[in-house]
Each structure stands twice: as structure tokens, then as C-alpha cells.
Specification:
4-stranded antiparallel sheet, 4 strands, alpha+beta
């Protein structure tokens, strides 16, 4: 009887620990090392932009969707669309797009959509599935704004 009670207590404690771990993971999104680097770069860029007269550094945001026919490709850069690109850069961070599809057991996703941000000092690139991109409101807004901005700048 005492052994059964001890085993039950151990099982209950283990279940509690697992539940707390799962809860912690659900409120704190898993970030890939690339997402962490990107967030640091964006934070530093935003700090620089707070100074009067500071210029937005060169950055190119590109998105290629190979899951459509024909393949869709958009590219925006800060020299032409500064404010719009800055909005997109913030949405990439808010949606953790460089961690899209990542899980505890899988570091990154593979998929037909390629997102890249190229700066003079670094390149951030990730492949993802459409579901990964659209899984958060920020990701869905990002996708729609890329379409709108790219269409507006090409016409």
C-alpha cells in the first residue's frame, strides 16, 4: 500500500513537471539561433533610428513562394520603400518567422516558401511551409503586406 502511494505521488509530480514545462513552452515561443540574431540586429537598427537624422540601413526583404503556379517572388529594399520595409522587418520579428516550424525536436522547417533579409553585415534566410507563415496574425499580415507593397512598388 505504501509503495503504491509512493509511485502514485512520483507519477503525479512527474505529470506536474511536464505540465509546467509544456505551459512554459506555450507562453514563450521557441526561437531559433537565427531568429535571436535577427531580433538583435533589428533591435540595434531601431536604436540607431531613434537618433535625429539617422538613415535606415540598407536591407532587402525577399519572399519566394514555390507552392504557387507560377512561382511568386517579391523583393523590397529600404532604398525605395523604407517605411514599408521597416514595417515588414518588425512583423518578421513579431511573428518569429525565422523560427517558423521550429519545435523542441526540430530546429527549423523546410518548405516551399523562402524568406530572406539581406543586410550589409548579415543574411537571414529560412524556408517554411505556408501554414508556418500564416500560423500567427503577424505572419498573415506580413504575407499580405508583402503582396501589397511589392505590387505597389512595381507599378
Amino acid at each position: 500500500m505504501l509503495i503504491k502511494r509512493s509511485l502514485l505521488l512520483i507519477a503525479l509530480m512527474a505529470a506536474t513537471v511536464l505540465a509546467l514545462y509544456a505551459y512554459n513552452r506555450s507562453i514563450r515561443p521557441l526561437k531559433s539561433p537565427m531568429q535571436v540574431r535577427y531580433d538583435e540586429w533589428l533591435s540595434n537598427t531601431e536604436k540607431i533610428l531613434r537618433y535625429e537624422g539617422a538613415e535606415l540601413p540598407e536591407a532587402i526583404v525577399s519572399l519566394v513562394c514555390k507552392d504557387t503556379d507560377p512561382v511568386l517572388s517579391w523583393e523590397l529594399n529600404t532604398s525605395k520603400d523604407g517605411a514599408n520595409v521597416l514595417r515588414l522587418l518588425r512583423l518578421i520579428s513579431d511573428a518569429n518567422l525565422f523560427s517558423a516550424g521550429a519545435s523542441l525536436f526540430k530546429k527549423h522547417s523546410t518548405g516551399p516558401i523562402t524568406l530572406s533579409v539581406t543586410t550589409p553585415t548579415d543574411t537571414f534566410k529560412a524556408n517554411m511551409r505556408r501554414e508556418d507563415l500564416l500560423s500567427s496574425p503577424a505572419g498573415a499580415v506580413f504575407m499580405k503586406l508583402v503582396e501589397v507593397y511589392a505590387t505597389g512598388s512595381s507599378g
